[in-house]
C-alpha cells in the first residue's frame, strides 16, 4: 500500500463528478464506489480500481493499491452522498459480461428507480441468486445511487443488459411474470429452473415482454380495502423470493 | 363543496411549514396529507380536515369541505414534496387512539427512518394487519415523509405509541422478535394470535424489549457470502409477513 498526498486537480474533480451521468460513465468506462466497508471488498472481486481517494487511508489495509489521501472538503466535492463517507474508489466498468447458466434468475423489464434496482440486487444476493438480466432501458447498475443501495451486493450478482424480446424468445425455461392479476404465489409450484420477471414501477410489464412469458403470478392482498396501493416492485420481489425459498 | 380564492398569508405558510417538526405538529395538533389521491379518501376515514388547499379544486369532488384555491407557487411553499402534487390537506391529529384487540399485530422498537415506518404501514395494510404498536421513540407517524410513504395506508392501520416495556409486560400472547440469530421462519409454526416485533435499523431490539419476547426468529440467508449485508427492516417485515400469510 502506497499512500500519497496531493491536491485534487479541478480536472479530476470534474471528471469524477461527471460519473453521475451514464453518458460520462460510458465515455470514461468508470464508476464510483463509496465507503471503506464496500471498497475493502473490491480486491477480492472482479472489479478493478482505477483510483482510490481517502480521508483516512490508514483504515484501508490494501496491499497493492495506491491510495491518495485527500481532505474532507475534497471528499465532499467528489462524493455523491449527502453525508460523504471516508473514501471514494473510481472503478473500471468491466467489458462485456458473460451470461451465466443459473437455476433461478431475475429479469427486469424497465425498472427506473435506482433505489429499487439496488434493493433488488441486495435481495438477490441474500437469496444467493447470481444473475439479473435487465432490459436495455432499465436504470444503469453503475448509477451511483444503485451502487450505494446494493450495499456491496453488486460485487456478487451478475447484472447484464440486453434486448429482452430477443433474449426471451430463445430462453428455454419457464418464465414467471409478476402483476396484479396472476396466479396466487402461495398456490403454485415453482419450477426447478426459471426466470422471475418484474416490470416497470408505473406500467408493469411491456406487452411485448408479457407475450413471451409462461405464467403470470400475484401476491394476494389480504387487506379488504380496495384502495390499498399495490406493493412496490422491490417489496414484491422480496415477498416472492421469500416464498420461492421457503420451499428450498 | 365551496371553493374560494385567497392569498395564503405569511402566517399560514409559516404554520404549515412548521408541521415538518414533531414539536409543532403537537403544538397545533395538525399534520399534512398531500395529493388528491389520498386526500379523496379522507372523508371516509377517521381523520378530520382542518384546511384544504388545491391548485385544482374542481378535481376534488367533496360535498362538505371548503377548498381554498391556491397558485402553484403557493403550493410549492406549503408542500414538503420535492415535486409538489395538486393539493395539501391540513388534518387534525386524532386524540388518544384506542388499542384494538387484533389477532396479528406489529410492534416497532425504535424504528427511526420515516421511509421504513411508512413502508411497514403500507405492508400491514396489504396484509390486512390493523394495528402497529410503536415504542415512544419510534419516528412519528405524522411525520410528512412517513405519511407520504404509506401511500394512504395510514388511514387504515391503527398506529399507537406507548411504553413498550410496560405494554409487553402485560401482553398475554406470544411475541416473536426478529434478528439475525433466531429460529428459521420457514421451520416454525406461527401462533393464531401474536405480535411480530422489529427493532431499530442499526441496533436491532433493545435488551429491555428482548427480555420480554417469547421467541426470536430469522430469515435464513441463502447466499453463501458472509459479507452480504442483512436485509433492511421493512424488507424483512415483508418477507416474514409473506411467510405468515402463506399459511392462511
TrEMBL record, chains A, B:
Keyword terms, alphabetized: Methyltransferase, Transferase
CDD domains, alphabetized: SpoU-like_RNA-MTase
Keyword Transferase: yes
UniProt keyword Protein biosynthesis, yes or no: no
Lineage top rank: taxon: Bacteria
Pfam families for this protein: MRM3-like_sub_bind (PF22435), SpoU_methylase (PF00588)
Domain MRM3-like substrate binding: 12-88
GO biological process, one term: methylation
Domain tRNA/rRNA methyltransferase SpoU type as annotated: residue spans: 104-241
InterPro entries tied to this protein: Alpha/beta_knot_MTases, MRM3-like_sub_bind, Ribosomal_eL30-like_sf, rRNA_Methyltransferase, SpoU_MeTrfase, tRNA_m1G_MTases_N
Molecular function GO labels: RNA binding; RNA methyltransferase activity
Family: Belongs to the class IV-like SAM-binding methyltransferase superfamily. RNA methyltransferase TrmH family.
Name used for this protein in its record: RNA methyltransferase, TrmH family
Organism: Epilithonimonas hungarica
Amino acid at each position: 500500500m502506497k499512500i500519497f498526498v496531493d491536491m485534487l486537480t479541478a480536472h479530476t474533480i470534474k471528471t469524477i463528478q461527471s460519473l453521475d451521468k451514464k453518458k460520462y460513465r460510458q465515455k470514461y468506462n468508470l464508476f464510483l464506489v463509496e465507503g471503506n466497508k464496500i471498497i475493502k471488498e473490491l480486491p477480492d472481486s472482479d472489479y478493478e480500481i482505477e483510483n482510490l481517494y481517502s480521508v483516512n487511508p490508514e483504515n484501508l489495509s490494501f496491499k497493492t493499491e495506491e491510495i491518495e489521501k485527500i481532505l474532507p472538503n475534497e471528499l465532499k466535492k467528489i462524493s455523491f452522498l449527502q453525508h460523504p463517507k471516508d473514501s471514494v474508489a473510481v472503478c473500471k466498468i468491466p467489458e462485456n459480461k458473460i451470461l451465466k447458466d443459473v437455476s433461478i434468475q431475475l429479469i427486469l423489464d424497465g425498472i427506473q428507480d435506482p433505489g429499487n434496482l439496488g434493493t433488488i440486487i441486495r435481495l438477490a444476493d441474500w437469496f444467493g441468486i447470481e444473475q439479473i438480466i435487465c432490459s436495455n432501458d432499465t436504470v444503469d447498475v453503475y448509477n451511483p445511487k444503485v451502487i450505494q443501495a446494493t450495499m456491496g451486493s453488486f460485487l456478487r450478482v451478475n447484472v447484464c443488459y440486453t434486448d429482452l424480446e430477443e433474449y426471451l424468445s430463445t430462453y428455454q425455461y419457464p418464465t414467471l411474470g409478476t402483476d396484479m392479476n396472476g396466479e396466487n404465489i402461495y398456490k403454485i409450484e415453482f419450477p426447478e429452473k426459471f426466470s422471475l420477471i418484474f416490470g416497470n414501477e408505473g406500467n408493469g410489464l411491456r406487452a411485448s415482454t408479457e407475450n413471451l412469458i409462461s405464467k403470470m403470478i400475484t401476491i394476494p392482498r389480504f387487506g379488504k380495502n380496495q384502495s390499498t396501493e399495490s406493493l412496490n416492485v422491490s417489496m414484491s420481489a422480496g415477498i416472492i423470493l421469500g416464498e420461492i425459498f421457503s420451499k428450498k
